[in-house]
């Protein structure tokens, strides 16, 4: 079976829309080569009008976005609706959106790269259904990375164009590459209703 396709848009490594397979990365840099240190992660989704069984209406799904920090392959900390900030203060969740309705980002997570603990090398971005709904019921899931400053430059975006049968979805990760960071597109379904249930699956990701 062919790998699901991800669309990554970027203003750093990628200067136009490119269809990518899994495991592609976008450098988190502006067009002039600068690497913003404060990022805003906008995560969004829509309720699908065609998901699920024929003749049934799509339920109202409360999806939760999470940022999960790993250091040397182990869980370090996480930010989600029930724990809005990591201990080092580098990742701050801006609150829960319970429906995914409306235009624009459904949930937002702020990341201050200068505050990230030195041993943290991966920050996974996960959405999950606490009520246990299959993510076949959602559509147009994405994560975009924007500089958290007055310019608000969109640095990269991952858009998912395929259904996920599991209750959780790892959209992407921000990965440390020496002094800089990149957005790595993942798009993997996981059996998780809360972020801690995804830890074992995340540890298996290359």
The Cα radius of gyration reads: 16 Å
Give the helices and strands as they follow along the chain: EEEEEEEEEEEEEH
Q: Can you count the helices?
A: 1
Unreliable spans are: 1-5, 12-20
Structural domain count: 1
Describe this structure in words.
The chain has 206 residues and is mostly beta strands. The chain has a single domain, classed as Sandwich (Lipoxygenase-1), CATH 2.60.60. It is built from one helix and 13 strands; from the N terminus they run E-E-E-E-E-E-E-E-E-E-E-E-E-H. The strands form two sheets. It has a seven-stranded antiparallel β-sheet with strand order 2-1-11-10-4-8-7, with no helix packed on it. The chain is globular. The two termini are 19 Å apart. The model is unreliable at 1-5 and 12-20 (pLDDT under 50).
Keyword list:
206 residues, mainly beta, Lipoxygenase-1, 7-stranded antiparallel beta sheet, 3% helix, 45% strand
Note the topology.
Elements lengths: L5 E5 L7 E3 L4 E3 L10 E10 L15 E9 L2 E6 L11 E3 L13 E6 L7 E10 L8 E10 L6 E7 L7 E10 L2 E11 L8 H6 L2
Antiparallel strand pairs: 1-2, 1-11, 3-13, 4-8, 4-10, 5-6, 5-9, 7-8, 9-12, 10-11, 12-13
Please sum up the structure shown:
The protein is mainly β and 206 residues long.
């Amino acid at each position: 079976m062919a790998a699901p396709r991800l669309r990554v848009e970027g203003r750093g490594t990628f200067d136009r829309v490119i269809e990518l397979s899994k495991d592609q990365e976008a450098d988190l840099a502006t067009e002039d080569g600068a690497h913003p240190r404060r990022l805003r992660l906008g995560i969004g989704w829509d309720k699908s009008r065609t998901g699920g069984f024929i003749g049934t209406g799509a339920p109202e799904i409360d999806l939760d976005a999470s940022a999960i920090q790993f250091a040397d392959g182990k869980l370090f900390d996480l930010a989600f609706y029930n724990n809005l900030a990591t201990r080092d203060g580098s990742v701050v969740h801006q609150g829960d959106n319970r429906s995914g309705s409306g235009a624009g980002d459904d949930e937002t997570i702020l990341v201050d790269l200068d505050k990230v603990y030195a041993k943290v090398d991966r920050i996974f971005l996960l959405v999950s259904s606490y009520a246990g709904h299959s993510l076949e019921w959602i559509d147009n899931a994405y994560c975009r990375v924007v500089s958290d400053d007055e310019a608000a430059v969109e640095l990269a975006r991952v858009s998912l164009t395929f259904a996920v049968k599991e209750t959780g979805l790892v959209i992407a990760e921000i990965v440390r590459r020496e002094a800089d960071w990149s957005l790595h597109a993942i798009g993997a379904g996981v059996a998780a209703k809360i972020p801690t249930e995804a830890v074992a699956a995340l540890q298996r990701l290359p």
